[in-house]
Amino acid sequence: MTEANTSSVTKYKSIMTFAEVAEMLRRTVSAVKMMTRARRQNSDRHPIPFRHIGGRVVFLRGEILDWRERVFEYDRKQQAARLALKKGKR
Predict the structure, then answer these.
(1) 76-88 average pLDDT score
(2) HSE-CB for 44 with a 13 A CA cutoff
(3) For residues 89 and 1, what is the distance between their CA atoms, to the nearest angstrom?
(4) Rounded Cα distance, 71 and 69, in Å
(5) Are 18 and 29 in contact (CB under 8 A)?
(6) Cα 80 vs. chain centroid, distance in angstroms?
(7) Rg of the chain on CA atoms, in Å
(8) DSSP states of 6-45 as a string?
(9) Of 19, 88, 16, 2, which Cα lies nearest the Cα of 51?
(10) Phi-psi domain of 54 (left: phi exceeds 0; alpha: psi -120 through 50; beta: other)
(11) What residue numbers bound the domain in which 21 lies?
């Protein structure tokens, strides 16, 4: 396996806890737990990816990194659209 393949496999196989995800996202553990609730998963535009393993909720580092990038990209586009709209109203 090449070094690039090894790093991408490691990226996806790394398991994270609520606390680790909360630290990465700069949120509280309770906020991350709320993100995994069924109602929130059904209503969010970008629901947070998680797994149930052995009766526990865990997160795969690669999925969280990809999810975070999608959410940030969506937010950047929304902000740009709002700014363009503001400039058009002047």
Answers:
(1) 76
(2) 16
(3) 55
(4) 5
(5) yes
(6) 21
(7) 17
(8) HHHHHHHH-EE-HHHHHHHHT--HHHHHHHTSHHHHHH-S
(9) 16
(10) left
(11) 3-89
Q: If you average pLDDT over residues 59-76, what whole number do you get?
A: 91
The Cα 72–Cα 70 span in angstroms is 6
List, for residues 16-41, the tens digit of each pLDDT value.
999 999 999 999 999 999 999 988 88
Structure tokens belonging to residue 57: 């909720």
CA distances from 6 to 2, 3, 11, 12, 19 (A): 6, 5, 8, 10, 26
What's the structural domain count of the chain? 1
Structure tokens belonging to residue 80: 């740009």
Q: Helix (H, G, I), strand (E, B), or coil: what is residue 82?
A: helix
Query: The whole model's pTM is what?
Result: 0.70
Rounded-to-integer distance, Cα 18 and Cα 29, Å: 6
The identity of residue 14, as a single letter, is: S
Question: Is residue 40 within 8 Å of residue 84, measured between CB atoms?
Answer: no
